[in-house]
Automatic annotation (TrEMBL):
GO molecular function, one term: protein-disulfide reductase activity
Superkingdom: Bacteria
Protein name per Swiss-Prot or TrEMBL: Thiol-disulfide oxidoreductase
InterPro entries in the record: DCC1-like, DCC_oxidoreductase
């Protein structure tokens, strides 16, 4: 039985990320701080929900080097395009990141892949203890 994300979380963007990566967790915390309009939910790719998302779309479910952004209107973005869309959704000064859309996806994704390959060297794993309100934004 498939979970219809578009029905369960119809008005939220869901960020799927590597839950065992300190660099990735740092950016999840950053999004949590900047998400003043409560647009985002989060799920690690290793979680039951994350694995279901990957499996239902025949995406790799053992390699967690790709960031996915589920949009409420039933599609998802990956890598560089996901980052640009997250910045745009946060708004304010961060919406200027949309200038990055002038780069071809191939170039943006090359940069993304370079960072992704080195992400575990870029930040140490630290235990993040979300507040009660922040915990409500995580899907397991």
């Amino acid at each position: 039985m498939t979970t219809d994300i578009s029905v369960s979380f119809k008005d939220k963007n869901i960020v799927f990320y590597d839950g065992e990566c300190g660099f990735c967790n740092h950016w999840v915390q950053w999004i949590l701080e900047k998400d003043k309009n409560d647009k985002f939910l989060f799920s690690s790719l290793q979680s039951e929900f994350g694995q279901k998302f990957l499996n239902e779309r025949n995406l790799p479910n053992q390699v967690f080097d790709t960031l996915y952004l589920w949009k409420p209107d039933s599609f998802y973005l990956t890598k560089y395009q996901a980052i640009l869309e997250i910045a745009s959704e946060i708004g304010g000064i961060y919406s200027l990141a949309s200038i990055g859309k002038i780069l071809p996806d191939a170039i943006g994704n090359q940069f993304y892949n370079l960072v992704s390959r080195n992400r575990k060297k870029l930040a140490a794993n630290q235990c993040f203890l979300p507040s009660a309100d922040q915990r409500k934004k995580f899907i397991n």
